[in-house]
Specification:
By secondary structure, the protein is mainly β. The termini are far apart. The protein has one domain: Pectate Lyase C-like. The chain contains one helix and ten strands, in the order ββββββββββα. The strands form two sheets. The chain has an eight-stranded parallel sheet, with no helix packed on it. It has a two-stranded parallel ribbon with strand order 9-10.
């Protein structure tokens, strides 16, 4: 189903089973609403306000977000297979324990997002802001962090399986040393 073939809605309209399949939702305003355990398949969300929405334990398959505001989104334990997030705000989002596979976060504000205990496979973050994001106990396979802002990243020791750029290594050096139990001190510091 191509984008032009999808019916277009102005709200996330779930069926009686809590599913939305093959739809394009434009300009929906759902701030703070509960969508826990929903199932979205072949869905595009464009310029939607999802601030503070609860998508805990939701299942996304081929779901794409574009220009959405999803600050403080609750998406713990979400399963997301194949999709994208483009030009969105996901700052302070909770993605603890999420399973993300083949998801691309392009130019997304993910500052302070919590990926703790998440499993990320074939996930990319080009041009995204991951400042102070938490990856503690995450499992990464083929995760591309090149060209992302990584200042203050937490859980650096859990990034095994991720790729970073040479220019990012210096900023992560302290966290990597700490994760390996290496003390970093000046030569004349006897403490």
């Amino acid at each position: 189903m191509t984008t032009s073939d999808r019916p277009e809605f102005t709200a996330i309209a779930l069926d009686e089973d809590g599913e939305l399949v093959g739809a394009r939702v434009v300009g929906a305003r759902h701030a703070g609403e509960d969508f826990s355990r929903v199932r979205l398949v072949d869905v595009e969300l464009v310029r939607c306000d999802l601030t503070g929405c609860d998508f805990t334990e939701a299942a996304f398959h081929r779901v794409h977000l574009q220009e959405c505001r999803a600050t403080s989104l609750e998406a713990g334990l979400v399963t997301w297979r194949t999709g994208s997030v483009t030009d969105c705000r996901l700052d302070d989002a909770n993605l603890r324990g999420a399973q993300l596979e083949q998801v691309r976060f392009a130019t997304v504000n993910c500052a302070r997002a919590d990926f703790g205990g998440a499993r990320l496979e074939a996930v990319q973050f080009p041009g995204s802001d991951l400042t102070a994001a938490d990856f503690s106990n995450a499992r990464c396979a083929d995760v591309d962090l090149r060209d992302a802002r990584l200042e203050g990243l937490k859980g650096v020791g859990s990034l095994r399986g991720a790729t970073i750029g040479v220019d990012q290594l210096f900023g992560l050096a302290g966290g990597l040393a700490g994760a390996l139990g290496i003390s970093v001190r000046e030569p004349d510091d006897d403490r």
